[in-house]
Structures are given as C-alpha cells and as structure tokens.
C-alpha cells in the first residue's frame, strides 16, 4: 500500500517540474537563511556565517539531485532524456539519419505492403456470418478444387442431410439477360441460384422474399430477385416493384424480392444484378456438370466428420452412376475461404519470405551504418564512460536512438507500403479476390498496425542492439591513452560479416526473381498451338427465341461472318462458344466399336464455327476442318486434336472412326448424333499456358442438338474472333459496326488475343513484378553496404596507404589490394547465397513453369550479376585509395 | 552506496517522525536542529540530506506539508505528522526496540565468552 502510494506520487512527481524545482529552491534558501541568522546571532561576520551555514547544510546540488531522484522515477526521466538526446543527435547527423530512415522505410514498407495483402486474404475471416461452416462441395481426386456439379450429383449432395444443410446450386459463369422493359434494351448481369443459396451465403433481404422451393422447380412460374444496386438505379428504390413483373429476354418475370448482395458473392464474378432460380428437377439423373454447389456444415458436426461422410457417400454415388467417378475420385468439401483465397497461399508465402529478406538486408545495412557511426563516436562514448556512465546506460542511450529510427522508419514504411500496395493492386489486372476493384478493400487494421510496430521493434533490436553493445565496449585505459583514435579490428570484422550477409541474402532474392522471370519468359515462349498476332475477339449475347435452335444461331453467325470477311483488311473470321484461355468445358465420350480406355475421363469439348482453325492458325494435321456444308442435316462430324488421337487411338488411325459425345449424360444431349472424325488438329494450350494440352473434341456449332442449344447457348455469349492483316486496333470500330448491323445485337468486350494471353498471366506477372522489385532493392542495398564499408575502410586506412605510397608502392597495386579485399567479401557472400538458394529454391517450385528450381543458367547468371555490381561498388573506393596524397595523409595525423 | 544510504534514511526518517510527533509542525531547519540537540550533538547531519527523507515520508503519506511563516517572519515549509505517520512511528519504534535488545544481548554474550 505504502509503496503503491509512493509510486503514484512519484509518477505525479514527473509533472510540474518547474514549480517543484522552484519550491525546493525556496525551501533550501529559507533553511540556509535560518542557519545564517543563527550564526550571526552567535557572533560571526555575515561572510563567516554564510560559509558556516553552507558547511552545515552540505552540498546543495547533491541534496537537490538526491531529492530529484526521490521525487520522480529516474528511469523514465533518463529515458526521456535519452530520447531528447537521440533526437538531437539524429538531427545533427541528417545525412546518416536520412539514409538509415529511407533504408528502413523501404524494408518495413515492402514488408507492410505484402503483409497487408496477406492479412486481407488469409488472416481475416471472410466477411460473412460463420464463414468456417460455409463449404464448397467438390469432386475429383483428393485435394481437387473441381466444384462443378450435375443435377444428379446435386441430388446426391442434398441427400447428405446428416452433415450438410442449405445445399445450394449456382452458376458461377457471368451471364446476362436482356431487360426489354425500357425503350433501349439493357443487359442485366444474371446469377442463377437455387432457393437455398440466399440463406446459405447470408443475404440481407430488403423487401419481399427470396425464392421458395416451389419456384425453384422446372416449369414453375418465372420469378426473379433484384439486387439492391439495380433496384436503386433502375427502379429508383421503389419498393412497390415487389410483386410486379419485369420483361427479361422477352418473357415476363415476377419480382419477388430485393436483396443486398454480400461483397463476398462478387468473388465468383461480377456482382449480379438479378437472380433467377436454377429450376432443377430434384429427380433428375442428368450427369452434365454445369453449375457449382455450396453448403453449410451442420451445427455440432465437425468439418472432419462431414468430410468422412461425403467420402463414404462416394461409393453409393459410384454404384448408382457407374463410370462417372474415376477410381481415384471421391466427393469432398473445402472451406469456401480456401477456395476464394487458398490458391494464393504459395505466391503470398513466397512474397512474404522475399520481403522478409529485404527487411533483413535493410537491417544489416543500417546496422553497418550504426557501426561506422559508433566508431566515429568513440570519443563521445569514451568521455561518457570516463565520467561514470555505466555500460548499460550507454547501451540504453545508443539503443534509444535505434528504436527512434526504427519507429520513424516504421511509420514512414507503413505509409509507403500501404499506399504502395493499393496503387499496385489498382494498377494490376491480376484480379486478386477480396481486395476490391482497385485494392481499396485492403485496409489498415490493428493487425497491420501491430505487425508494423512489431517488425519495427524487431528491426531496432536487429540493427541497433549489436552495434550498441559493440560501440559501448570501450577500454577506458586504451581510450584515454590514444585519445580515441583507431578503429578496433573486431568491429571491422563485424561490419564485413554484415556485408557478406547482405550479399548472400540478395543472392537468394535474385535467384528467386530470376527463376520467376525465366518461367515467365518460358510461359510466353511456350508453343501455345495458336496464333495471337492480329487476332481480336468480341462477344454478343444470343438471347431470345430466335437462337433457341442451332439452325437459327448458325444463320446469324453465318450472316455475321460473311459481313466480317468482306471487310478489307480482315484475313479470317470465325465464332466459337469458347476461345483459348477463356474457360473450358469437357464431356465424356464413347467410341462405338472401338472400346475406349477405361481411365479416360472425357475430353475437352469445343463448339466452333467454320474458319476457327484458320483464325488461330491452328494446323489441321490430317483430314479437313469444318465448312459451311457441315449443317444439321448433313452427316455429323467432329475434329479431334493430336493429344486425343495419341491418348485414345494409340497408333491406330482415328480418321473415319466414330465418336459419341456425352451420350446418356444429360437430357439435353440425348439427340447428340454419333459423329465421324474428319480431321486431326494441332494441340492448343487452351486451359492456361502452364497446362499441357488436354484432349479436345471440336464439333461444328450448326450440328449441336437443339435441346442443348436451347438450354445452354440461349442467353449466353457467342465469341467472335477475327484475324486482320494489320494491327487490329484500327479496324475495331468498323468490325463492331458491321457485326452489329449484320446481327442486330450489341457487340461488347473487345480484346486482342494478346490481351487475353496477358490477362491469363496477370497473376504471374504480379508476383514477378514484386519479386523483381524486391530483388532489385536487395541488390541496391547490398551494393550500398559494400560501397559504404569499402569507402569507410579506405578512409580509416588513409595513413597506412599514404605511408605505403610514400615509400614507393605502386598506386595500381594499392588499388588492386583494396579491390581484392572488397571482392573477397562479395564472393564469400555470393557463395553462401548460392548455397542458401540451392536449399531454398524448392519452395518456389510450385510457381515455376518449364524451369527447374535449380536452373543452372540462373545459378550462373545471378552470381555473375552480383559479382559485377559488387565490383562497381568496390572500384570507386579502391580508385580513391590509390589517389591518397601521402603528404596530406601524414599531415592529417 | 545504496544500502548504506537506505539504512541512514531509515533511521533518519524515524527521527524525523519522532521529532514531529513530539514538537508538532516544524520546518526543515527546526527538525535538523532538534535532531542534533536530541542526539546530544553526537550526530551532526548535513542538513541537506534531510530533504530527500522528508520527500519520501510525504510521498508515503506519513507526513504532510504546507507553506507558512516562521517565528522570525520568514517563509518556510512546515511539516506535520499525519495519522498514518503516527501508526508508522509506533511500529518503527517497536522494531527498533526489539532490534536494539537483540543487539544488546549479542554484545553481552560476546563479552562473557571472551
């Protein structure tokens, strides 16, 4: 109690210092005067009296000092003094402080930037209620992320009600519907979703309700739910819209409700404006996969239990639908968060590791600066020690300076990193999830702030403590004798070690970025199998009854293509349901009279129009491609690619063989004819440049069964592709106008094929860009460290070099000696760095394409680059060393 | 250094408390003089060392202070003992009593054994 009270009083004692000082002085003065009066009464002269009084009182300043120690808390007071002193000393050495500050801000800033993304994507829970229970249902081998499901599989999943609830289907692909209620036809982004979808994700219903189970059945009356944004824009927030009908694609739909779409749903595509029911038949046995399924794990059921249940159910499913699940395949679930951001974990891990290295290098650099400064402060420190400062007191004071620097660097770094990453995300087209359109969702929160504080302090310990300990180690005797000259050998060894560390860390980073660069180049150089030069794409929405049959669609396409081909400068034109790198679909197939291998899981399925191979310059190796005579009434044909021929015909000639696609898989394909293989096309990397070509079957659009066209093409985009003789940019307006006139449909989403390729690599480019920036920063910092150390050493050895030169040493040999000394450090760093990279490169493996983690070229090029940069960093100090003027150097002493 | 001054502070604060208890409110000069007189001039203290002790006692709440005017019309700070100070004093006195008794016994037994 007593101590507590006293501590409190002492804390108070830290305040109102001037008043307290005045009172103390007054009190002592009055005490002295009383003593003097007494002495005068005893008969002394005033001078004698004063002297005697002072003797009786004792040391006034000593009394005050010990009074002050009692009054406040000396530790805090001296820390404040340290702080003031550190500020003053940094202000006096602006160059040093600024350099250290910038280096630290760079290190802490880049770490903050990456961390804030990691925080947003991997650490924060998804912005939905109870996100851990929201799962995506997947099929395929263990670890598969294949979310696609068929009506049959959906029914199977809904039956797993012991572990799952709110099992809901939705179509992840972007589609639109034409709103025909206004004067101008308007496109509304559309989301198909089953009745439970809204409850499963956790939509906020503003007005009305979402779909009932009955409205979600085939042939139910058509209903829609509007998104809040569309409702505000299109219907001026009029709540009476609920219950009215809107005309979509020419059909009336009743609006049953208005909902606020959670931001999370946008991760599956552009935010929908209108929701329509899936209208799946619960009894359907269709096996065509064209939608995705999410669900919630039931309360009180663990994730593992649910997973085990689904695994077990795979056998029932396999028994009911033989041949659909492969022997390795199973049914499983993954947390939606994992699906949305989990795939970025390796990239972010590597980037975070990389910035960690940058930060380490920055710390080593600043530590070196501090050591150099510590050496020049020997005199000051020595004097402090001589007048009685303990070593811990000196360390504390030096460390205070580091901490101040680190915190200032951290503040600056926070600002830099936070602003930088937002700018970078805004500029990047990598389309990271959960960060918003231009990174605006990456926010500063307590995690980021705490992280910055933590790494700043950690940095202060890393770069500040060791130099502080080392600088404070002063032998008073030696110091006083030689007047504080000469730097300890031990310290220059420490500095050399730091430089070696910097060089080796930057080797590791550069190896990482070089590997990414190599694999990026390889990705660009890989034989894609299709030509992108002067090819552009655009799309039209084929909505309305006219396009519900393949023939009608084919007519429009032919009219459009004829018009396109007539444009001067157009070399080739075609259309397709999908184009390379923009989504793929696949179907199982059969080869009647030619048993297909058991392991086949189907092949890619591409619906194209005549001229497609010509536009992309995909070679037709054998047979022929499609032409205008391959219409519905003509014999059914297909073209397969080389991989498919190799995989399933194994040396036999597939030409002329028959193939049956998707038979018995779904209702819509029951009229799919048996096709004759009329051609073999070259392989195309259409499912991502990093993926090896898969087997693909091409079929002519005009021969697709009407039922399929009605259900899937209808309300979907048709992609048009055009190859021009020259730069396509100039022709784009003409092409758009002609196509619009010919088809009577709005033409949108112009893109050159080069842009499509670039977009498909945007994520790789983003990580490559960051890694290169980090690698460059590391190189710069290491070069700075090396240069700084060599320049300092030369400065320290001025006298020695001067004597050597005076005694007739060859200037060139002096220079070479310095170069050798510097390069020895650099090479040691390079060697250590190579060894470390060799061990660490494997962590990059999952990000690499066509480059081995221990790529010999990289492991030669990076050391050479580093050695070259190191040579530059060493050369200038070395040249200066050989130009030391002996007379001046000796006089300087 | 530290330990010695702690002991010194301990005894000195006991003397300060006792003085204030006996004489009522006093200024620093008065307390110092009184301690010197009571100790029969055996103990001559540097008056300056008194002030840290006074501060500590005040922080602990054993004494309180206020500015006043001395007998010869001089502005001075007067200290007085508080209620908790009196309790503190009683406890300290008992402690000292016991300590001196023990020390005394030791000295006696030492005399006999030699």
Approximate helicity band of chain A: 40-55%
| CATH class descriptor of chain B | Mainly Alpha
- At the third CATH level, what is the topology name of chain B? Arc Repressor Mutant, subunit A
What's the assembly state of these chains?
heterodimer
Number of domains of chain B: 1
- The strands making up the biggest β-sheet of chain B line up spatially as 1-3-2
Helical run tally of chain A? 28
C-alpha geometry of chain B:
globular
Order of helices and strands of chain B: HEHHEEH
- The structural class of chain A is alpha+beta
Using the CA coordinates, give the radius of gyration of chain B: 16 Å
Q: Rg of chain A to the nearest angstrom?
A: 38 Å
The tally of beta strands of chain B, per DSSP, is 3
Describe the structure concisely.
With 893 residues, chain A is α+β, with helices and mostly antiparallel strands. Chain A is built from 28 helices and 24 strands. In chain B, 66% of the residues lie in helices and 14% in strands.
Detailed description of the structure:
The complex is a heterodimer of chains A (893) and B (114). By secondary structure, chain A is an alpha+beta fold. Chain A has four domains: 2-72, no CATH class; 131-343, no CATH class; 345-525 and 766-891, no CATH class; 535-725, no CATH class. Helices cover 53% and strands 15% of the residues of chain A. The two termini of chain A are 62 Å apart. In chain A, 42% of the residues are buried. Chain B has 114 residues and is an alpha+beta fold. Chain B has a single domain (2-113), classed as Winged helix-like DNA-binding domain superfamily/Winged helix DNA-binding domain (Arc Repressor Mutant, subunit A, Orthogonal Bundle). Helix content of chain B is 66%, strand content 14%. In chain B, helix 1 packs across helix 2 (28-38), helix 1 packs across helix 3 and helix 1 (2-23) packs across helix 4. The interface between A and B is medium-sized, with 29 and 23 residues.
């Amino acid at each position: 109690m007593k101590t507590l009270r006293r501590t409190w009083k002492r804390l108070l004692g830290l305040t109102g210092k001037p008043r307290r000082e005045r009172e103390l002085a007054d009190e002592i003065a009055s005490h002295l005067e009383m003593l003097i009066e007494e002495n005068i009464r005893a008969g002394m002269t005033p001078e004698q009296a004063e002297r005697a009084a002072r003797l009786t009182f004792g040391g006034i300043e000593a009394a005050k000092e010990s009074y002050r120690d009692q009054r406040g808390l000396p530790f805090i007071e001296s820390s404040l003094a340290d702080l003031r002193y550190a500020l003053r000393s940094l202000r006096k050495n602006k160059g040093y402080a600024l350099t250290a500050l910038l280096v630290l801000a760079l290190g802490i800033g880049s770490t903050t930037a990456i961390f804030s993304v990691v925080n947003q994507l991997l650490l924060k829970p998804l912005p939905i209620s109870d996100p851990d229970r929201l799962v995506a249902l997947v099929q395929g081998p263990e670890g598969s992320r294949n979310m696609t499901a068929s009506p049959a599989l959906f029914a199977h999943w809904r039956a797993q009600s012991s572990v799952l609830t709110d099992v809901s289907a939705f179509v992840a692909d972007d589609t639109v519907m034409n709103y025909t209620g206004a004067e101008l036809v308007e496109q509304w982004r559309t989301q198909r979703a089953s009745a439970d979808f809204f409850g499963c994700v956790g939509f906020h219903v503003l007005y009305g309700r979402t779909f009932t189970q009955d409205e979600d059945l085939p042939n139910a009356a058509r209903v829609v739910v509007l998104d809040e944004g569309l409702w505000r824009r299109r219907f001026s927030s009029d709540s009476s819209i609920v219950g009215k009908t809107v005309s979509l694609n020419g059909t009336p739909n009743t609006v049953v409700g208005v909902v606020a779409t959670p931001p999370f749903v946008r991760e599956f595509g552009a935010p929908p404006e209108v929701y329509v029911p899936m209208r799946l038949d619960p009894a359907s046995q269709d096996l065509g996969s064209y939608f995705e399924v999410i669900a919630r794990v039931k309360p009180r059921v663990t994730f593992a239990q649910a997973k085990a249940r689904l695994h077990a159910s795979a056998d029932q499913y396999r028994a009911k639908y033989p041949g659909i699940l492969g022997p390795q395949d199973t049914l499983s679930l993954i947390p939606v968060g994992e699906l949305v951001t989990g795939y970025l974990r390796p990239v972010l891990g590597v980037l975070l590791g990389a910035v960690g290295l940058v930060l380490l290098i920055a710390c080593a650099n600043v530590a070196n600066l501090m050591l150099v400064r510590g050496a020049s402060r020997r005199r000051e420190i020595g004097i402090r020690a001589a007048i009685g400062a303990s070593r811990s007191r000196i360390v504390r004071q030096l460390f205070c300076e580091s901490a101040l620097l680190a915190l200032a660097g951290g503040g600056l770094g926070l600002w830099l990193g936070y602003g930088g990453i937002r700018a970078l995300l805004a500029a990047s087209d990598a389309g990271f999830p959960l960060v918003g359109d231009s990174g605006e969702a990456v926010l500063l929160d307590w995690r980021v702030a705490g992280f910055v504080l933590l790494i700043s302090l950690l940095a202060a310990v890393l770069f500040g403590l060791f130099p502080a300990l080392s600088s404070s180690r002063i032998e008073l005797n030696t110091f006083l004798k030689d007047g504080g000259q000469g730097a300890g050998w031990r310290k220059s060894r420490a500095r050399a070690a730091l430089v070696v560390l910097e060089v080796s860390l930057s080797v590791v980073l550069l190896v990482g970025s070089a590997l990414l660069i190599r694999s990026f180049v390889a990705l660009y150089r890989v034989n894609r199998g299709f030509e992108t030069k002067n090819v552009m794409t655009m799309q039209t929405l084929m909505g309305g009854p006219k396009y519900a049959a393949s023939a009608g669609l084919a007519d429009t396409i032919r009219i459009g293509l004829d018009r396109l081909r007539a444009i001067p400068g157009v070399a080739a034109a075609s259309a397709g349901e999908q184009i390379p790198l923009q989504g793929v679909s696949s179907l199982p197939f059969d080869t009647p009279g030619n048993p297909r291998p058991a392991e086949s899981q189907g092949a890619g399925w591409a619906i194209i129009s005549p001229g497609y191979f010509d536009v992309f310059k995909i070679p037709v190796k054998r047979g022929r491609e499609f032409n205008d005579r391959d219409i519905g009434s003509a014999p059914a044909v297909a073209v397969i690619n080389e991989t498919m021929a190799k995989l399933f015909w194994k040396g036999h000639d597939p030409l002329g063989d028959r193939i049956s696609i998707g038979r018995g898989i779904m209702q819509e394909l029951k009229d799919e004819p048996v096709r004759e293989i009329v051609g073999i096309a070259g392989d195309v990397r259409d499912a991502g440049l990093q993926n090896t070509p898969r087997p693909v079957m091409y079929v002519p659009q005009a021969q697709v069964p009407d039922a399929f066209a009605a259900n899937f093409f209808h309300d979907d985009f048709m992609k048009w592709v055009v190859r021009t003789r020259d730069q396509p940019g100039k022709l784009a307006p003409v092409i758009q106008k002609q196509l619009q006139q010919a088809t009577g449909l709005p033409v949108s989403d112009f893109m050159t094929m080069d842009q499509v390729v670039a977009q498909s690599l945007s994520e790789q480019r983003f990580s490559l860009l960051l890694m290169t920036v980090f690698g460059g920063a590391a190189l710069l910092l290491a070069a700075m460290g090396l240069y700084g150390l060599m320049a300092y050493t030369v400065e320290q050895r001025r006298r020695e070099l001067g004597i050597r030169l005076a005694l007739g040493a060859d200037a060139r040999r002096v220079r070479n000696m310095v170069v050798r000394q510097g390069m020895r450090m650099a090479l040691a760093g390079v060697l250590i760095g190579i060894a470390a990279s060799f061990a660490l490169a494997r962590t990059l493996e999952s990000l690499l394409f066509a480059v081995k983690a221990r790529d010999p070229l990289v492991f030669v090029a990076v050391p050479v680059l580093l050695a070259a940069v190191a040579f530059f960093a060493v050369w200038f100090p070395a040249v200066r060393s050989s130009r030391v003027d002996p007379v001046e150097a000796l006089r300087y002493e | 250094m530290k330990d010695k001054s702690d002991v010194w502070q301990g005894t000195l604060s006991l003397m300060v408390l006792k003085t204030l208890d006996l004489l009522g409110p006093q200024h620093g000069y008065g307390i110092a003089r009184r301690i010197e007189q009571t100790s029969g001039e055996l103990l001559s203290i540097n008056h300056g060392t008194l002030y840290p002790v006074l501060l500590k006692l005040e922080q602990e709440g054993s004494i309180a202070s206020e500015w006043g005017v001395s007998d010869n019309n001089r502005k001075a700070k007067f200290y007085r003992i508080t209620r908790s100070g009196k309790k503190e004093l009683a406890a300290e006195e008992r402690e000292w009593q016991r300590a001196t008794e023990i020390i005394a016994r030791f000295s006696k037994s030492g005399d006999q054994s030699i």
